Task: structure prediction
Amino acid sequence: MLLKKRHAPPKASAMIEALRGLGYSTAASLADVIDNSISAGATEIRLQFYWDGLQSRISIIDNGRGMNDAELEAAMTLGTINPLDERHPTDLGRFGMGLKTASFSQCRRLTVASRVKNGDLVCLRWDLDAIAESLDSDWYMLEGPAAGSELFIEKLSSFESGTLVLWELMDRVVTLGTDLNHFSDMIDDIELRLGMIFHRLIEGARPGFRLFINDKQVAPWDPFMTGNPGKALESPIERKSTSSGVVEVQCHVLPHRDKLSEEEFLKAGGPEGWTSHQGFYVYRNKRLLLAGNWLGLGKGRAWHREEPHRLARIRIDIPNTADADWKIDIKKSTARPPVFVRNWLTKLAESTRDKARKVFAFRGSPTTGIGGEPIEHTWRVEHLKSGVRYRIDVSHPAVSAVIEACGGHKDLVKAMLRVVEETVPVQRIWLDTAENKDTPRTGFDGEPNDTVVEVATVLFNDLIERKGLSVEDAHQSMLRTEPFQKYPSLIANLRKTLNE
Ligand SMILES: Nc1ncnc2c1ncn2[C@@H]1O[C@H](COP(=O)(O)OP(=O)(O)O)[C@@H](O)[C@H]1O
Ligand SMILES: [Mg+2]
Result:
């Protein structure tokens, strides 16, 4: 039977305008272009931002292996590479679209110049205005740079081999009203983001790799504060073999704010701030795809990014053979863990989140005493069907001392404690924590030392004089009593004074 067919090629102008709406950010687009340079073996990549109002430009130049004329033509053509093809293990590409889709999302004119070693410089260009104006709306590329833009591809001449990508008519980057200040702020933001996306390559995963923005080297941003002594967790690397390759995971709990200088704290917050940057960091060939996200995992319902878990950051490494399993999208900005790793990841995340929450809530101080002995807490948390309730623990030495010492007035003291318990300013604390993005200070945190000494001395003396404890036993008891367990040297001093 004769198959009835209709030829139905897309109209170039309509197709490209649609592709422009994929929703890339400028930083993500640049990262996609940089990926190509990395895949081409480049060790030096230079971004140049040229401010010129609506005529502003960005160029990305690399010292990779470059392309000859045929390769460049294939690279510039949409839909020449099959996403299903197997890729070299270090290749950062996938869909054969990034160069075009990333560029078109930012600009209306894309010029790519390239040269291989001992080869001539070749240059091709997509000009969306020219396509829109052409009557047949066919896919016509232009040869060479636009008139007047020759200067901007010149830099490539000094390279033995390499590629230069030039974005012009950047209608999605510079719009009416954008001024030099906006442009500079954008460059600063891009620098932070690229320093994050490529931090492992900059830090040495690719020897000699350097990334520059306007001749300034981009500094890496390590989300895991590797080597910081204040970290509460840096787990060993866990591995899982899957049909699409090995997945590696390492769990981290970052130091509490109190253990960082103001500058360290700000920096560790990353481009989007602490709350946004919690969760999984998914890397594909050492290139960061996702910076902080719970990936739809959770117990019962999906976890959200919330303040108490902001210190939890988990590194996941996947190979590029796992793209289909992880549903990597064209923008390389989403990834979904496949079913067969979800339980494993949920378990690892759960214990990391737990630890992170404790460090956040207790401001990084230990919740057990010396030698792992339990601490005498002042407050008990009761989990009832009707909700959570907070009660003062009357066995806490400071509390029991008063109840015992006041003889016939015990009831008065107990009534007072009940009033305190019933009026804990829970909502206020909750609001303050949310607003200040930190738990309020407690347990003499930040109090002048004199206050701590005064209260500790009263209690210490009471243990000895009224309760008849030996100096040594009183010392041990204080080390197990909240909040004094945080001040072991102060307690040791009290013992020393009494012993003298
Ligand atoms: N800077 C570059 N150096 C060498 N080759 C490049 C460069 N940029 C792109 N290419 C070539 O163009 C092809 C298409 O790139 P792209 O559209 O980003 O898709 P993908 O990266 O998924 O293959 C790449 O596979 C590569 O062969
Ligand atoms: Mg690519």
In short: The domain at 12-217 is CATH 3.30.565.10 (Heat Shock Protein 90). The longest strand covers residues 245-253.
